[in-house]
User: What shape does this take?
Amino acid sequence: MKIIDLEPSDPRLTDDLLPVLVELRPHLTPELFRTILAEGQGQGLRFTAAYDADGACVGAAGWRIVANTSTVRMLFVDDLVTASAARSTGVGRAMLAHLEDHARAAGCTVLTLESGTQRTDAHRFYFRERMAVTAFSFDKPLV
Assistant: This one.
């Protein structure tokens, strides 16, 4: 497996990574994704892709480094998804390890992600990876 941090202008973002990301975020269209990339880049949004030995993208992660008062500096994972055909093959574990390396190199105190309450399979994976539930996330729809 090869894990690559993709630059904002890399065509692999839409060609390779987006089809995997859509498995987690089905509302994303190529146009909306490009809009998010353009705005998110200024907010530190980055993407990382995992490729299998055949060159197929099998994992996607969206992440950013965030400074805040509670953790001082954290790597926040916006998206973490393994292609359905590649689940339970070590992709998620490798992606998390790669992101953890980024976090340590950036002086982060924690790697944080949120996971929808309905994603019980993902929660089992996070617990196996020694992650803990440390907070609740509250949303108020504005539309």
User: Anything to note?
Assistant: The mean pLDDT is 94. Residues 30 and 99 are 25 Å apart (CA to CA). DSSP finds four helices and five strands in the chain.
